[in-house]
Amino acid sequence: MNSFDLEHLRSFVTAVDAGSLTAAAPLRFLSQSALSEQLRKLEQHANQTLLLRSKSGVTPTAAGVKLLHHARHLLALSDAAWRDLQGVSLSGEIRLGITDYCRPADMIVLLARFARDYPHLKLRTMMGKSGDIEHAWQQSELDLAIVMRIPGTHPPGSSTREILLMDEPMLWVSASAPAQHEPLPLALLPEGCSLHRLACQTLKQHQLPYVIRHIASGVRGLQTAVIAGLGIACLNRSAVPAEFLNKNHTQRLPPLPSAEFVLLKGPDDNSETSQVCAAFSEILQATLSGAMP
Predict the structure, then answer these.
(1) Which of 88, 95, 67, 84 is nearest to 6 (CA)?
(2) Pick from 27, 41, 81, 237: most CB atoms within 10 A?
(3) For the segment 40-95, what is each residue's pLDDT rounded down to a tens digit?
């Protein structure tokens, strides 16, 4: 067969857009080795080298640039065919809320992709704390929302309007090993943050003394504080700065539960907005699970 595998093409486009296999793998929800294998098979099928790999990342070859144009077109046609079968045109405006814990390093790429692939859809985004975003959604100030929850700490919601997108391990993160026999220095978001409460409650349950050394206003500020060595943070895996993922400075700290990322769906009626929100919800689910419809 001379046809291309659409998932291999999607991985190729994602790798080019992200600039490296390391950055592209989580966007496709694949391990780096699995992504590399898909790209190897694509190059084997094309019988040409498509990507130049170096320590700084990946860049397309002349053949890769040529294929990139066709790949974008084929993927757009595939997505358009899916939407056409659903009878929904992605146009108009969607008010989308996203917790800033949700894959912060990837979100710019994802939003740029949505803007490119759905030019007739206007996104109005709000990013911040899950509690603020969920409140805005409950007040109908947002059409769709992605929030983070710690299992067992949130009252049951309306399951018909909530979808579990993914879960991630929670990690203690520190620039250096904490000093023995001294209170643990914490870097946290303000008291209303669920991870602030989780960190403090976990340490109290294990009778580990701590002191709050730094309060950041958002996840980006918290990441900066950790990198600067201002304290130990409690973060979901995709929010951990890349340089800290393989460090073992916090082995003696107690284990943490996983975090859940939940999609709060749009209005459940027959309006045009409802139909567009439903279609875009499917795209969000597919994107965050690694495969578009």
Answers:
(1) 67
(2) 27
(3) 999 999 999 999 999 889 999 999 989 988 888 788 778 767 766 766 567 888 99
